Amino acid sequence: MDSIGVLMPVPMSTYLEQELEKRFNLLKLWTVPQKTQFLKDHSGSIRAVVGNAGNGADAELIETLPKLEIVASFSVGIDKVDLNKCREKGIRVTNTPDVLTDDVADLAIGLALAVLRRLCESDRYLRSGQWKKGDYKLTTKFTGKTVGILGLGRIGKAVAKRAEAFSCPISYHSRTEKPELKYKYYPCVVELASNCDILVVVCALTDETRHIINREVIDALGPKGVLINIGRGPHVDEPEMVSALLEGRLGGAGLDVYENEPEVPEQLFELENVVLLPHVGSDTVQTDTAMADLVIGNLEAHFSNKPLLTPVV
Ligand SMILES: O=CC(=O)O
């Protein structure tokens, strides 16, 4: 398979790069200065694109690559892949579900704890020597808080399971009710937000879920409510969230994703009730390896005419 051109637009995993290089002709787009010319020069040999959560395969890239057969995303979310264009051209698409579920769900709980118990802020308090002048102030209990989950897929269910261990009543909103689950279903997001202390956003980003967290939902969550976003930045109307936090209309936020990554609204930097992570939901050594193995497994299956391991299209 070493003559098959595999295009990687941005760096994402050293292990994945090494393993791809052992099997394919890996073309690292970020290393070349003349990207458009490079793509033209290699358009006859590129049969696969390996993208990620930030850089997938848009219509323009797909049109540039006439021999493209598969987009294997190093991510579970495939909102940066033009799925319609792929369907139209018969291009297969795969992602990396399941292997990252635990890490992302762990991080949701970590963010909720970090916001309510002010873990980052109290760490800064100690490091700056302020403990010597007095104890850190009281924070807010997490155990028993009502957790509302927006999107009860694989990761949403894993968040629910973890929150249950903290005796948190669970409620959710998703496109359809899941009667087999004992959690309370709200057919409307505003109702879910009105009835929970912590709202975790974990659904897929689609045209329907873009800005699903708008001013009405934020106000329903209210000055004691905490928003946790481990889904995608564009789920949230970011300027509305920033104003609500600055004006005290929202109690706090734990964010791993942003509307224009890596740009993050700087007004949030000064807020002690906000914890900001640089989109690291699945970034552990173990999950990086598992995701890379899945990308490679999908590419090998495709180029050996075997069934894909985790097909999306
Ligand atoms: O954001 C990360 C992913 O979609 O895997």
UniProtKB/TrEMBL annotation:
UniProt xrefs under CDD domains: HPPR
PROSITE patterns xref list: D_2_HYDROXYACID_DH_1
Keywords, comma-separated and alphabetical: Oxidoreductase
InterPro entries in UniProt: D-isomer_2-hydroxyacid_DH (IPR050223), D-isomer_2_OHA_DH_cat_dom (IPR006139), D-isomer_DH_CS1 (IPR029752), D-isomer_DH_NAD-bd (IPR006140), NAD(P)-bd_dom_sf (IPR036291)
Top-level taxon in the UniProt lineage: Eukaryota
Domain D-isomer specific 2-hydroxyacid dehydrogenase NAD-binding, first and last residues per copy: 109-281
Residue ranges constituting the D-isomer specific 2-hydroxyacid dehydrogenase catalytic domain according to the UniProt record: 15-312
SUPFAM superfamilies per the UniProt record, alphabetical: Formate/glycerate dehydrogenase catalytic domain-like, NAD(P)-binding Rossmann-fold domains
Cross-referenced PANTHER family: 2-HYDROXYACID DEHYDROGENASE-RELATED, GLYOXYLATE_HYDROXYPYRUVATE REDUCTASE A HPR2-LIKE
Protein family (similarity comment): Belongs to the D-isomer specific 2-hydroxyacid dehydrogenase family.
Protein name: Glyoxylate/hydroxypyruvate reductase A HPR2
Organism: Prunus mume
